Amino acid sequence: MLSTKTRGKQVEKCQSGAMGLLNLPRMLQDEGFVGIVPILWNILSRSQIRDRILAMRRVFQHYQQDLGYILISAKKQS
């Protein structure tokens, strides 16, 4: 278990979950509508980017049961 006080830092948040890379609902949640528009435009208008993104998405979907994230947020003690 992670200590909540390590080397002068106070852990404020710990979180883990399923990786949502290149998943449209997750991208909207992370980036917002305004942030996702240029990303989608580049994917739709540039075939090299689109091919690479779709290949990456297939890999992420194939291994989704093995991928995840860990978030640890800490604040330096004064």
Structure description:
This protein is of the alpha+beta class. Helices cover 49% and strands 27% of the residues. It has two helices and three strands; from the N terminus they run E-E-H-H-E. A three-stranded antiparallel beta sheet has the order 1-2-3, with no helix packed on it. Strand 1 and strand 2 form a beta hairpin. Helix 1 packs antiparallel against helix 2. The longest helix is centred in the middle third of the chain and has 22 residues. The radius of gyration is 17 Å and the shape is elongated.
Layout of strands and helices, then pairs:
Blueprint: E1 5-6, E2 9-18, H1 24-45, H2 47-62, E3 68-76
Antiparallel strand pairs: 1-2, 2-3
Provide the descriptors you would attach to this structure in a database record.
78 residues; 49% helix; 2 helices; alpha+beta
Short description:
This protein has 78 residues and is α+β, with helices and mostly antiparallel strands.
The Cα radius of gyration reads 17 Å
Number of helices: 2
Strand content: 25-35%
Rounded mean pLDDT score: 89
- Roughly how much helix do the residues carry, as a percent range? 40-55%
The unreliable regions are none
Total strands: 3
Q: Give a quick account of the main beta sheet: strands, pairing sense, barrel closure.
A: 3 strands, antiparallel
Helix/strand order: EEHHE
Strands side by side in the biggest sheet: 1-2-3
Structural category:
alpha+beta
Q: What is the overall shape? A: elongated
Q: Please report the distance between the alpha carbons of the first and last residues.
A: 24 Å
